[in-house]
Design a protein that fits this description.
The complex is a heterodimer of chains A (229) and B (618). Chain A is α+β, with helices and mostly antiparallel strands and 229 residues long. Chain A folds into 2 domains: 2-108, 2-Layer Sandwich (Alpha-Beta Plaits); 110-225, Alpha-Beta Plaits (2-Layer Sandwich), CATH 3.30.70. Helices cover 24% and strands 35% of the residues of chain A. Chain A contains 5 helices and 11 strands, in the order βαββαβαβαββββαββ. Chain A has helices at 19-32, 76-86, 106-109, 127-139, 192-203; strands spanning 2-10, 49-51, 60-70, 91-99, 112-120, 144-148, 154-158, 163-172, 175-183, 213-221, 224-225. Chain B is globular and about 75 Å long. Chain B starts with a helix and ends in an 11-residue tail after the last helix. Chain B has 21 helices and 19 strands. In chain B, the strands form 6 sheets. Chain B has a 6-stranded mixed β-sheet, covered by helices on one side. In chain B, strands 15-16-17-18 form a 4-stranded parallel β-sheet. Classes of the chains: A alpha+beta (229), B alpha/beta (618). At the A-B interface, α1 of A face α9 of B.
Chain lengths: 229, 618
């Protein structure tokens, strides 16, 4: 079996596309590029493509990953070229690596995400004030946040340890540029919007509207970058 | 050009449902530089993105217009309620998805009229686009509002709001219009309209005045401009192989209603069902060659990556080269490209075809017997017998299908409760055929879905003079049918009766209905065909305020000798033919299909040189 691990970027042009719509669009890209992708068996055969992480509507990224199971071995460089040639605006293939032996699915190994967030700050809030709030949050042992789970039930969890990094990069145009590293993946996961909502609610440093712009820079496996060399 | 509302938009889009509807950037979108010479055409679909992007006509005209160097055609759709609110609160005008220019900056804004219940959305989109609602209020700087599509065969209810009507198939006449515009830039609006008026298929409603007699019928239609034609002849494309069909279509990200490649195998229909407007106004039947269709399929698969092709037309199983085409398209099967037929003729040939196409997953089959008794099927000239239907479904059950959907109309002329009873009886007989099926492939799940729409008489059909049922009558019939369909394996869907009555008013409406439309829109009516949004009460208020009784339009029979509001249009089928067909309907006499015997509908004398039934080696 041949597996192509693909790193891609999702730009502004397609940030409002839902994950489901993106999946469908990527499958059509594979068709256009004429890539022979393996199909699942059964009544309703579908292309064997698996995504590391779903991406919320509105977010951009330069560090997304997916795996495609191929029918026959393909050259990584050629595959990258073909896909970029047929890609829609806003989608860019950054790197491709071919595996000839089974590898663990990305979804099961991803642990953290590096994020850049641009969020409007409340009037009269200074840079120092924001830094103070960040420090206070990082000093906490317990930080309990409540969210609705997939079944519609409210669950409360201590997510303090999910915040690996929370740093102010600077302020411009009344917007704070925040660098974050948060737990992400199938084990521990913290949605950056949830953390922002907490700071909006509890510390009143950020505005709820306009919505923060969230950009994923990279996904990590236990703090390490994914190697596609 | 920087648009001040774009930054605002980026902040606001996260607040609305499906923001992808409002951004564009799809694959195969046409991008052009806009210069002072660009003829800027906005193709406006008066419904949401998912509906509009499913429409084949829009794809055809978008690419046809953009093939012209001088033209830039862009798209716009009706914003959903939440987006409209955001736009109005933040002074964001209705814009096109490509350049994000606002509608009022265009040279032409073209609306496609697919169904009457989208008319309120047209007024709303004009308003959101900052274009004067009334044609008379538009000045030299305003765009021309141009409309086409099936409802363009009676645009009288829209006469006060639109500037130009294109009657019939638009591919050729649109280019002629553009050409006239190009050659006469700088000419006054009125003079341009006079020049457009000379093109065959173009109707300028403001060039006519309509007078009514005491009974409320039209007494005369007076041309207000010298040379305004007495009759507007519809346009149609003689050779579909030679007309532009896109080799690239926009690939939406959002799942649209028909999210697949649509190949148009023919236009028109040879069947002659007496209720069917499309079957009349799109005459003559013209097929596309399988060679051209194969070429279209290949190019579109390459350009989109779609894995489904639908063969579209009014009755695809009537395509004379269907086996050949399907045989070819099956070569794509190994690439997991599936082929689907939108509806099936009621015969075993169709089951054989469907069996070939739905090898793996037998999802469901849809048939349209239209009426419950043989008598009524003869009235509407639906040449299908009960035996045809039962043999067909038996075959389907034997081949492994279990889910059968049957379409009927209620409220057809001459209908009695016996005919409604007939629908229930037919449903039960179909179910019986399932239980009698002895086949190793027999499906374990059986489901019969009965779906009824309410008959609405449409212009240029033999029933154009007939009144339709009142809401009370429709409800009574629906309730009766509900009470008769008690088997748990049979389910029943029906249409909103209030909507059907309103549709009837507009389908056969005259210019006086325009003020009802305006009043209802002012009251907040829009998206009328969406059940949760349709406001029947507001519509009735609007009728009352305008002093118009909807029953006079929907339920009343028209006299055969009266001047009908749509008489100014020549749809190709003659009034004599329609009257003859009406008479035969009430005599319960069927008329042969065109393919078997010509019934002299008038289309050959209309076009002068057209020869029907020339399907080559058939």
């Amino acid at each position: 079996m041949t597996l192509a691990r693909i790193k891609y970027a999702k730009g502004n042009e397609i940030k409002y596309i839902s994950h489901l719509d993106f999946q469908r669009s990527f499958h059509r890209l594979l068709n256009r590029a004429g890539i022979d992708v393996a199909f699942s068996q059964g009544f309703n055969p579908h292309l064997k493509v698996s995504y590391a992480m779903a991406m919320p509507v509105g977010m951009t990224s330069e560090g997304e990953y997916l795996d495609v199971e191929l029918v026959a071995p393909v050259d990584a460089g050629k595959l990258k070229l073909l896909l970029n040639e047929h890609a829609p605006k806003g989608l860019k293939i950054v790197a491709v690596k071919i595996f000839e032996e089974p590898v663990k699915s990305l979804a099961s190994v991803i642990t953290e995400g590096i994020l850049k967030v641009e969020v409007p700050i409340e009037d009269d809030v200074t840079e120092n004030k924001i830094r103070e709030v960040f420090e206070e949050i990082l000093k906490k042992d317990v930080l309990e946040l409540t969210r609705k789970n997939k079944k519609g039930k409210f669950v409360t969890k201590n997510i303090r340890s999910y915040i690996k990094k929370l740093e102010l990069d600077g302020v411009s145009d009344n917007k704070a540029h925040v660098d974050m590293v948060l737990s992400m993946g199938s084990i521990d996961n913290l949605n950056p919007q949830l953390l922002l909502d907490y700071m909006i609610r509890e510390y009143k440093i950020f505005k709820e509207f306009p919505k923060a712009k969230i950009h994923r820079v990279e996904m990590l496996v236990n703090g390490e970058k994914i190697d596609l060399k | 050009m920087k648009k001040e509302f774009l930054d605002k938009l980026d902040d606001l889009l996260p607040l609305v449902e499906s923001p992808g509807r409002y951004v564009g950037n799809e694959l195969n979108v046409v991008e052009k530089d806009i210069t002072a010479d660009t003829i800027h055409f906005a193709f406006a679909f008066p419904d949401i993105y998912e509906v509009g992007m499913s429409h084949l006509g829009m794809k055809i005209l978008y690419h046809l217009l953009n093939e012209q160097e001088a033209v830039y055609c862009e798209r716009t759709f009706a914003p959903w309620i939440d987006m409209e609110k955001v736009m109005r609160e933040n002074d964001i005008p209705l814009y096109t998805l490509e350049s994000k220019d606002k509608l009022s900056d265009f040279d032409f804004v073209g609306f496609t009229l697919q169904y009457e219940m989208s008319f309120s959305n047209i007024l709303n989109m004009l308003d959101l686009g900052q274009i004067p609602i009334f044609s008379k209020d538009r000045g030299e700087e305003d765009p021309f509002i141009i409309v086409g599509g099936p409802c363009a065969f009676n645009t009288e209810p829209l006469a006060d709001f639109v500037d130009i009507v294109v009657v019939g198939e638009a591919e050729e006449v649109l280019l002629e219009l553009i050409d006239v515009y190009k050659r006469n830039k700088g000419t006054s609006r009125k003079d341009l309209l006079k020049k457009f008026m000379t093109l065959k298929g173009v109707y300028i409603p403001s060039f006519y005045d309509v007078e009514y007699n005491e009974e409320g019928a039209i007494s005369q239609v007076k041309p207000l401009v010298e040379g305004a034609p007495e009759k507007i002849q519809k346009r149609y494309i003689e050779n579909l192989d030679k007309v532009s069909f896109p080799d690239k279509i926009i690939l939406p990200y959002i799942q649209t209603v028909h999210d697949r490649i649509m190949l148009e195998v023919f236009r028109g229909c040879t069947r002659g069902c007496r209720f069917c407007q499309a079957g009349m106004i799109y005459r003559p039947m013209r097929e596309k060659s399988p060679e051209r269709l194969k070429e279209d399929a290949r190019k579109l698969l390459e350009a989109t990556g779609y894995d489904e092709i639908s063969l579209s037309s009014l009755s695809t199983t009537d395509y004379s080269k269907l086996p050949e085409l399907i045989h070819y398209l099956k070569e794509y099967e190994e690439k997991k490209v599936s082929v689907s037929l939108p509806s099936l003729r009621i015969d075993t040939f169709s089951i054989g075809l469907a069996d070939e196409l739905q090898k793996v997953r037998k999802s469901g089959l849809t048939f349209a017997p239209e009426a419950g008794t043989q008598r009524l099927r003869d009235v509407i000239n639906k040449g299908v017998t009960e035996e045809d239907l039962l043999t067909t479904v038996s075959e389907a059950f034997e081949a492994g299908w279990g889910h059968i959907k049957l379409y009927f109309m209620i409220g057809l002329p001459t209908e009695t409760m016996e005919d409604i009873e007939g629908i229930a009886n037919l449903a039960e007989k179909v179910l019986d055929r399932y239980y009698n099926t002895q086949s190793p492939k027999k499906n374990r799940n059986v489901k019969i879905v009965i779906s009824t729409s309410s008959f609405v008489p449409k212009v240029f059909t033999p029933f154009q003079w007939e009144g339709q049922n009142s809401i009370e009558e429709i409800i009574e019939k629906q309730n009766y049918l509900k009470s008769r369909l008690k088997n748990r394996k049979i389910s029943y869907n029906w249409h909103e009766p209030g909507l059907s009555v309103l549709e009837g008013v507009f389908a056969r409406g005259d210019r006086r209905i325009g003020k009802v439309l305006y009043t209802a829109w002012k009251k907040g009516c829009k998206f009328d065909d969406t059940r949760e949004i349709f406001k029947y009460d507001l519509w009735m208020e609007a009728f009352e305020e305008c002093g118009i009784n909807p029953e006079d339009y929907a339920q009343a029979n028209r006299r055969e000798d009266e001047i009908l509001p749509w008489d100014i249009i020549d749809a190709g089928v003659s009034k004599e033919f329609l009257l003859k067909e009406k008479k035969r309907a009430f005599e319960e006499t069927t008329t042969e299909y065109c393919r078997n015997d010509c019934s002299n509908c008038g289309i050959t004398s209309f076009s002068g040189r057209w020869v029907c039934n020339d399907f080559g080696s058939n």
